[in-house]
Amino acid sequence: MDPREVETEANSDQNQSSNVYHLALDIGGSLVKLVYFTKDDDHIVDGEEGISREKTSVKSKGSRDYPVLNGKLNFKKFETSKINDCLQFIKTMNLHLGGNQQQENTGSQTTAIKATGGGSYKYADLFKERLGISLDKEDEMDCLVAGANFLLEVVHQEAFTYMGDQKQFVKIDQNDLYPYLLVNIGSGVGMIKVEGDGKFERVSGTSIGGGSFWGLGKLLTKCKSFDELLDLSYRGNNRAVDMLVGDIYGGMDYSKIGLSSTAIASSFGRAISENKELKDYNPEDIARSLLRLISNNIGQISYLNALRFGLKRIFFGGFFIRRHPFTMDTLSVAVNFWSKGEAKAMFLRHEGFLGAVGAFMSSDKHGLKELLGNEVVQQTPNKLSFAVDKIQVPIDVELNGDESIECSVYAA
Question: The organism sits in which domain of life (predicted)?
Fold first, then answer.
């Protein structure tokens, strides 16, 4: 299937909203993530158009064929502090009205949307009041793992490594994917040992994550948003704030234990010996030092947990990363350094949407994997099931969190 151009902005035209078929949410402490499917006009196929017959045929016990919908899987995010903007977007696009399950409630029918994350509890009443919908809550860890497994198994060139400004896509062998360590960096950090579909264990975590970077950065630099803080770090020099090994050893390496003179001995440690106030430091340098502090810490803790269980592959997800080169490079260097090159840090192109994708998939827990294997399904699929072996995403497009990818789904 040939990929179409990735969309970078959602179309707010009401005419398009009639093609919305499904919606799922992941409402976190910092961000609300949306995943929804929109079908293309005049692109319902029965096996002769678009993709081959063997990939469109799905049968229930009655040997009935189900049609395939060609369209796009869309991804969009909002700051949780601006949840009213998210609600307005859903309402304008009529995302909550298309192709969702119905729940009977005291004689009336209420549209139920799959949702995960703490906000699915915190904002449940708000969604019901503003949009008249019920949030059908799914477990957060279940969704994270299901979303990661799905993306790694189905989306072509989903995973990649990044170190020294070199990006390299990783070919995933579905028969050799497990086990791996999933490190989800959101407001905090969760570390999950994944052994298969539905087989996982949360083995560690840390409260020093994306929320720490954003919160401390806001206090120290006056930045108004996470992305503004990241942009600021691009222009910074952490050496103006951090104490380096060379500062302690008179500009020399500590070669006996493998530390170069430019290695950080103490994050923000230079401030100890300098008679300066906060206003005397460049905000860019503070942002750079803060980003490196948190990324290094997460990278080291991740490797130590991988070491506990003999895991060689570590996948990093969550919107803290933002495909930011310096963040990815710092995480990779930390994993490479502490593992002496034996473990790899790998990143996901749809890093921030793992939970939302898992929630989206939860509407079809029983049929998805069988469909991907082109096997006969012994029950009617629930709403949507993906009908391709690999979803193609243009490799020369840098995804920024609001995009869409072409795919096809089975419709019940």
Answer: Eukaryota
Residue 260 covered by a domain: no
CATH code of the domain containing 391? 3.30.420.40
What distances in angstroms separate CA 285 from CA 63, 263, 269, 310, 320, one per listed residue?
A: 65, 16, 13, 37, 19
Q: Are 331 and 191 in contact (CB under 8 A)?
A: no
In this structure, the answer to whether residues 184 and 98 fall within a common structural domain is: no
Verify that 312 and 217 share a domain, yes or no. yes
Distances (CA, A) of 35 to 128, 147, 335, 346, 358: 19, 11, 31, 23, 10
Q: Would you give per-residue pLDDT tens digits along the chain (412 residues)?
A: 333 333 333 343 444 444 666 889 999 988 999 998 887 764 444 333 333 333 333 433 333 455 666 778 889 999 999 999 999 999 998 888 764 455 544 445 668 899 999 999 999 999 999 999 999 999 999 999 999 998 998 888 899 999 888 999 998 888 889 999 999 998 899 999 999 988 999 999 999 999 999 999 999 999 998 999 999 999 999 999 999 888 888 778 677 777 788 888 899 999 998 999 999 999 999 999 999 999 999 999 999 999 999 998 999 999 899 888 989 999 999 999 888 888 889 999 999 999 999 998 887 543 444 433 332 233 333 344 554 444 555 544 444 455 666 665 655 4
Same domain, 97 and 195: no
In a domain, 9, yes or no: no
Contact 245, 265 (CB under 8 A): yes
Verify that 340 and 195 share a domain, yes or no.
Answer: yes
Same structural domain, 318 and 295: yes
Q: Report the half-sphere exposure of 171 (CA within 13 A, side-chain side).
A: 1
The SS3 assignment for 197 reads coil
- Tokens matching residue 399: 């995804």
Looking at the structure, tell me whether residues 64 and 176 fall in a common domain.
no
As beta bridge partners, residue 133 has 111
Apex CA 380: angle with CA 375 and CA 382, to 5°? 105
